[in-house]
Amino acid sequence: MFSIIMPVYNNEIYFPLAVASILQQDYTDFELIIVDDGSTDGTPELADAFAASDRRIRVIHQKNQWIYASFNNGIRQASGDYIYIVNSDDRLMPGALSLLAAKVREYHPDIIWTKVLMHVCDAGQKILEYDKKGLDGIVTTERYYASETEVHKAWPYFLSTYLAQNQANLYRREIMQGQQFRNDVYGADTLYNISIADRIQTALVLPQPVYAHYIYKDPGMNQSLGKYYSYTHGMYNEIYWQYRRLFEKWELSSGAYARLLYGRRMSGLTFELQSLQAENCPLTLEEKLQYALCDCVDDTIRCCVQEQNGQEELESRILSAIRELLLREPAEADGRMHFVRELLESLLRYEKTEDDYEKIRNGVYHCGNPLQIGKIFYKKLKR
After folding, report:
1. 127 or 267: which leads in pLDDT
2. Distance between CA atoms of 226 and 81, rounded to whole angstroms?
3. Do residues 257 and 209 touch, judged by C-beta distance below 8 A?
4. 3 state DSSP class of 8
5. What tens digit of pLDDT does each residue of 230-261 get?
């Protein structure tokens, strides 16, 4: 039997659709545990109505604790052999549970990694952009890993294909109930998979899409997307170092993972710099520019860049993020960070004058740019 955990908070519009995607499955041997996280709209009543109409459904009502606490509370009550988590504004694809059940009977794995297709949709969940990140074409072959050694060697593959990035996978109950999700960062699903990695001895990768995740065109409708979190930088650093220590512990060749972890950390850096544009970001423009030019490059970033000779990529990512910031919030002409605008405008100007070269030089060596972001491009121009 499967235990399906569904956390929900103030989601009376999409929550019934997520529940329907489970109840309409052709495989029926499951329990659905709905965890109402202190909702203040009509969600609690809807959840209770579902439970009253179907004996397979149970509801946990709790004070608001956030999504990962809801995961933990649902998992604690699960009685199925395997557990799958479905968010209340997403859906399981038709036939998903029967497919998973067949694979469990065939392999009995500790985990089945399942693809999450991310669709951009409107308020009515009409898909506007199918599989936005192209994940359906990344994993195309079913693969079974029959031993701990095989799982360890394949983990960089699980990471590179985004399978190990989230919690939308089928986990053996004993594994899930032996480890809790953290409830302090939005990347707790990635950190959770790292935390249980040593306990996974067998794994199956499914090529068939099982889970549909919806990215709503209105960013205000997504729980965490498009928002600024002050802890994001530290969270990405922690993911980087936890993976690095794990792979070193497993004695994997650094060639199998070093470039991968570098790429993920650089992508994370771009994401955190883009989040400075979020409406909820409390920083002033000067503080945002200072963060981009100075504070975001810490020892972890330096380590990544030095090992992979990534200085030019680092500068490109930072300058690109700053450009996007300044397109939204022009720097004041008499402000202390105005030199950044002059640096970018001169770097991007196709036909450069001597004045442009002077502005680039001044921007690169300005006291407000202690890392001398742009120096590599300035040197190329001066050759």
Report:
1. 267
2. 36
3. no
4. strand
5. 999 999 999 999 999 999 999 999 999 999 99
Interval 26-54: pLDDT, tens: 999 999 999 999 999 999 999 999 999 99
Mean pLDDT of the chain: 94
Residue recorded with tokens 């070193």: 248
Q: For 235-297, what is the HEC assignment?
A: HHHHHHHHHHHHHHHCCCCHHHCHHHHHHHHHHHHHHHHHHHHCCCCCCCHHHHHHHHHHHCC
- φ, ψ at 16 (rounded to 5°): -65, -30
pLDDT of residue 124: 84
**356-364 long-range CB contacts below 8 Å, 24 or more apart?**
357/381, 357/382, 363/339
pLDDT at 216: 84
Which long-range contacts (C-beta less than 8 Å, at least 24 apart) are formed by 260-263?
Answer: 260/156, 260/159, 260/160, 261/304, 262/304, 262/307, 262/308, 262/310
Return the number of other C-beta atoms located less than 10 Å from residue 13's C-beta. Answer: 16
Q: Do the Cβ atoms of 243 and 261 come closer than 8 Å? A: yes
65-92 as b/e, with b when 16 or more CB fall inside 10 Å? bbbbbbbbbbbeebebebbbbbbbbbbb
Q: Look up tokens 């659905």; give the residue.
A: 32
DSSP class of residue 65 equals -
Which residue, 156, 25, 151, is CA-closest to 86? 25
Opening angle at CA 258, ends 303 and 234, nearest 5: 50
Tokens standing for residue 37: 């996280």
What is the identity of the amino acid at 192? Y
Confidence of residue 135 (pLDDT cuts 50, 70, 90): confident
Pairing of strands 203-216, 111-121: parallel
Q: What amino acid occupies position 171?
A: Y
Q: How far apart are CA 329 and CA 227, in angstroms?
A: 17
Task: At 250, give phi and psi (nearest 5°).
Answer: -80, -5
CA–CA dist 35, 374 (Å, integer): 50
The one-letter amino acid code at 292 reads A
- C-alpha pair distances (Å), 284 with each of 140, 277, 278, 291: 46, 11, 12, 11
